[in-house]
C-alpha cells in the first residue's frame, strides 16, 4: 500500500540547477550561482508586479530610456533588482541591460568574474497598467578576455555562444524557464513556500496551435511576410486550424507558444524609418529566446537565417524575429527568399 503521507518528489530550482552541473565536470559552480541569483531576482520582481496596482510603484518616471521609451518605475525597479543581486558576487565581469545605453561595469570594490549578463528587466512593461503579464529575459555569455575591465566588444557575441539563457514570466503564476544547453526546464513559484519548483521538465514544443503577431502593422510588412501570414491563416494551401493569440509581451507570447505549439513573429516593417528591423532587440530578447527555442526542438530566424548566428554590431541592435515551430519558421524563410529577394 502506498504511503499517503509521503509527498511526491519535489525538485527545487536549486537542486535541478545543481544536478545539471553534473553535465560539466569542470564546472566551478559559478554559472549555477548566477542562475540562483536570477531566480532570486525573479522572486523579488514578482513580489512587486503582483502589487503593481497597489503600490506607489505604478506610474511613470520622467526619464526616457535609451530606446526612447518612457521608463516605468517598475522597469527601473526590475533593472536595479537584477543589477544589485548580481554585480557584487564576483561571478560577472559586466551587465548589459535594455534599460541602459552602455553596459554596466562591475564596481571597483567588487571582484570580477568570468561571465557576462545581458537582460531585459521588464519585457512588456507597457502592459503593466492593464494588469497584463510581463517578464524578464536573460542571457549569460562567457567573457572573451581573461581579465581586466569588460569591454563592449565582449558583449557582441552571437547567440551560439550563450552558455545559458532563460526568462521569468510574471503571469497568473510566476514561472522561471531556462536552458543551459541540456533541454529546457520550467519552474513555477510556489508563493507559500517561496521556492521555484520543477513543473515543466524537458519542454519540447508540440505541434503548432497558435500564431502570434501584431496584425495591426500588416500594411507595413514585406510581400513575403504578408503572404506568409495568409499561409498561417490557411489561405491557398496554407496550414489549417491555427488560432491567433497576441498579448504584446514577448515573454508571454513565446511562453504560451512554447507550451502549446506555435509561432511568434515581429517582422521588419516600414512603419518607423528609424527602426527598419522591427522593434525587438537581438541581445536582450531575440538571442536568449532563440537558444531556448532550439533547445526545445524549435527554431528562431530573422527571416533569412538563424538568430543564433547573427554577430551583433551594437548593444541595442534590433532584429526581425520569427520564433517557434521549426517547420513553420523555415516556411517564412522560404516566403521571404522567394518574394522579397533576400539571399
Ligand atoms: P514594451 O516593453 O514597451 O511593452 O514592449 C514589449 C515588446 O518589446 C515585446 O515584449 C512585445 O512582443 C512587443 O514589444 C510588442 O510590440 P507592439 O506593441 O508593437 O506589438
Structural write-up:
The protein has 343 residues and is an alpha+beta fold. It has 8 helices and 15 strands. A hairpin with a 5-residue loop joins β1 and β2. It starts with 12 loop residues before the first helix and ends with a helix. 1,6-di-O-phosphono-alpha-D-fructofuranose (AFP) is lined by residues 69, 123-127, 214, 248-250, 266, 279-280.
Q: Please state the CA-atom Rg, rounded to the nearest Å.
A: 20 Å
Q: How many H/I helices?
A: 8
Largest sheet: 8 strands, mixed
Report the portion of residues in β strands: 15-25%
Order of strands in the sheet with most strands? 4-3-5-6-7-8-9-10
Rounded to the nearest angstrom, the distance between the terminal CA atoms is 65 Å
Bound small molecules, by name, code or SMILES, are:
1,6-di-O-phosphono-alpha-D-fructofuranose
Helix percent reads 25-40%
Tally of strands: 15
Structural class: alpha+beta
Q: Which term fits the overall shape? A: globular
Order of helices and strands: HHEEHEEEEHEEEEEHEHEHEEH
Instruction: Provide mean pLDDT, rounded.
Output: 92
Outline the low-pLDDT stretches.
Answer: none
